[in-house]
Specification:
With about 240 residues, the chain is of the alpha/beta class. It has one domain: Uracil-DNA Glycosylase, subunit E. The chain is about 40% helix and about 20% strand. The protein contains 10 helices and 9 strands. Helix 4 packs parallel to helix 10. The longest helix is centred in the C-terminal third of the chain and has 19 residues.
Length: about 240
């Protein structure tokens, strides 16, 4: 995807003339009006995002709301979300923003809504499919919708692409669809951590990581989901910044 095709919405963010939330609002207002149900998303809390030492973007499939739509995911997340998805994302965020800290599982095994609210404020979350689905995603429908919406998704991603430090693609199909239809990194080369986690560089000390969905079925072993990601990020940063992680 060449730079001359980069979307225009949000290009004046760097000079401070437009705020991210305002750009998101403009984008969603101009999204193709072909959807009867729509769940917007993006930056959870712009002040917290701007102050965060590592800006984290989570890319997911779709919101789980088969009977709904017409609401904003970032508002929902700002209130703590629900444990099923957002416990693990809150843990991941806590771990990523505390890479130098030894985190014991008992500290984060049982977390509260207040913990989620605190650690989800600084993130950005984007669903590839804006029309909500059910608990299990129809991957064919997901792929079709992403292809139809790719120009709008590119515009949304462009709002964050110059600032984000870590992108987590939550699921193999999410990573595949993102790279095929959305991403703005034409010369990336995949690397693999010593424990088999795929990643590539998106800028100086900035990375995209292909990982599991936060609701992947691991029984009562959410600790595996947590340490698998955090250990991978520690290794990635040690390779490039050996004194910082």
């Amino acid at each position: 995807m060449s730079n001359d095709k980069r979307p225009s919405i949000g290009q004046n963010i760097d000079n401070g003339t437009m705020k991210l939330k305002k750009c998101e609002k403009e984008l969603f207002e101009n999204w193709p009006k072909t959807k009867k149900k729509f769940v917007t998303d993006g930056i959870v809390n712009e002040n917290k995002w701007n102050k965060s030492l590592k800006k984290i973007l989570y890319i997911l499939k779709e919101a789980n709301d088969p009977d709904g739509g017409g609401w904003d995911l970032s508002d929902f997340v700002a209130k703590g979300g629900k444990p099923q998805t957002w416990d693990n994302i809150a843990r991941w965020t806590y771990g990523i923003l505390n890479l130098n800290k030894e985190i014991f599982w008992n500290e984060i095994k049982n977390i509260s809504n207040d913990f989620r609210k605190e650690w989800l404020q600084s993130i950005c979350v984007v669903n590839l499919k804006k029309v909500p689905g059910g608990h299990t995603t129809n991957n064919n429908a997901l792929a079709k919708q992403v292809e139809e919406d790719k120009q709008s998704l590119q515009k949304q991603f462009n709002l964050y692409s110059q600032q984000v430090d870590i992108i987590i693609c939550c699921g193999t199909i999410v990573s595949r669809l993102f790279h095929y239809h959305v991403n703005d990194y034409p010369n990336y080369n995949w690397g693999t951590t010593s424990r088999g986690i795929n990643y590539h560089q998106i800028g100086e000390n900035r990375f995209l990581i292909e990982y599991l969905h936060p609701e992947d079925r691991v029984g009562n072993f959410d600790n595996i989901l947590f340490y698998g990601l955090i250990d991978a990020i520690k290794e990635i940063f040690k390779r490039t910044l050996p004194n910082t992680a």
